[in-house]
Amino acid sequence: MPEKVKSLKAWQRLWVVTGVIYLLLIGATGYVLMPTRERIERDMVFAVTEEVRKYEGLVFAGDSPEKIFETARGQGYPAWVAGLRKRCRIGAEGNAGFDRIEKEYRRDIEGLPLKRLRLSAWLSIAWLVPMGALYAMGWIVGWINRGKA
């Protein structure tokens, strides 16, 4: 066993093991919660399909969400939306809904780096605060225990 590890007290070794396990859990949580460009694009495609269904309810009947998303991605989102509007004959009456969707999409894409940074900061705090408190409790228990001898 390396000399530095041998010099750690039992509670410090327990703290290190607990910290690593908790860090893995925080990392997994971050992986699941981290916003991605693909998730934003999927949300936009879903919003567009819902907007189109207002005008022609059965346009996506029988299509899986994955197929719809892959079609939109393959054609390019602006061309896909324009094709849907033409095929379903959605004229000027649909402008407000489609403009809102595009505005939300652009806002979400532009805000993606900040959202990722903010989530990373919160996850770091979620690891540092409990682990700091646990270390302090271990140190206090060790200090009390040293005072008994």
Structure explained in plain terms:
The protein starts with a helix and ends with a helix. With about 150 residues, it is mostly helical. It contains seven helices and no strands. The protein is about 80% helix and about 0% strand. The chain is rod-shaped, with a radius of gyration of 26 Å. It has helices at about 5, 10-35, 35-55, 65-75, 75-85, 95-110, 110-149. It folds into two domains: about 35-110, no CATH class; about 110-145.
Strand content: under 5%
Shape by Cα distribution: rod-shaped
- Structural class of the helices, strands and pairings? mainly alpha
Q: How big is the Rg?
A: 26 Å
- How many structural domains in the coordinates? 2
Low-confidence regions: none
Number of helices: 7
State the assembly state of the protein chains.
Answer: single chain
Which sheet architecture does the biggest sheet show?
none
Summed over residues and divided by their number, the pLDDT gives a mean of: 89
Helix and strand element order: HHHHHHH
Number of strands: 0
Helix content: over 70%
Straight-line distance between termini: 28 Å
Summary?
It contains 7 helices and no strands. The chain has 149 residues and is mainly α. The two termini are 28 Å apart.
